[in-house]
Amino acid sequence: MTAVSRLIVIEGIDGAGKRTLADRLRTGLAARGASVGMGAFPRYDQDVHADLVRDGLHGKLGPLGDSVYGMAVLYALDRRAGAVELRAALRANDVVLIDRYIASNAAYGSARLHEPVDGEFVTWVHDLEVDRFGLPRPDLQVLLSVPTETAAARAVHRENTEADRQRDLFESDGGLQDRCAARYAELAAASWLSPWVSLDGALPVDVDGLVDVVLS
C-alpha cells in the first residue's frame, strides 16, 4: 500500500478502553498491509516531565499539583520532548497511533477549571502546544466514550489487578471525569485540531470500519 503517514490519536476519559482499542486498531491496520507505530502520553519512566506529572497526580508536588496551568505545562513539555521521536515514527510508518495527546490537556484542564472549550484555557493550550512548541497536528482524533461509571469500574479493576497501577487523583474524582467527558464531546463537535470520530465504547467497536476511516 501507499504510505499515508497519518497521526491518529485515541482520546477518552480514564478507563474508556483506549489502550485496548489502539491494540485492536493496530492489528486491523497491519492486516491491511499498513506499517504502524504506537505511542502514549504521558511517557512515564521515559521523560522527567512525565514522571513529575505522575508525582503531581499522586499528591507529591504540593501546590504545583493543584495548579491546572502548572500541570498542563508538564504534560506539554513531555510531548515537546517526545516530538522528535514522534516525527521519526511518522516518517517510518504509514500510521502512528497515540493514546492521549494535546486534546487531553484541553479536556482535563478545562474540566478542572469548569470552563467551556471555547474558554481561555483551551485557547492557551493550543497556543502553547501547537503554536509555541510546534507539535505535529493529528490527522484524526478518535473519541472513545463510555459511561463514567463503567470507566471508574475499569480503573478500580486495574488498581486491584496491576501492582503498579494505583488510581491517581484524576481517576478517583468522579465529578471531574463527568466534566471531562463533556469537554471531550465539545472538542469533537468543534473538530478541534482535526476531524474527530466518536465511538460508543459501551458497544462492540467496528474496527474494520475504523480502519477504513483511518486509511481514507
Task: Throw out a few tags for this protein.
kinase; 54% helix; globular; alpha/beta; Rossmann fold
In words, what does this structure look like?
The structure is a single chain. The protein has about 220 residues and is α/β, with parallel strands linked by helices. The chain has one domain: P-loop containing nucleotide triphosphate hydrolases (Rossmann fold), CATH 3.40.50.300. The chain is about 55% helix and about 10% strand. It contains 9 helices and 5 strands, in the order E-H-E-H-H-H-E-H-H-E-H-H-E-H. Strands 2-3-1-4-5 form a 5-stranded parallel sheet, with helices on both faces. The protein is globular and about 50 Å long. The mean pLDDT is about 90.
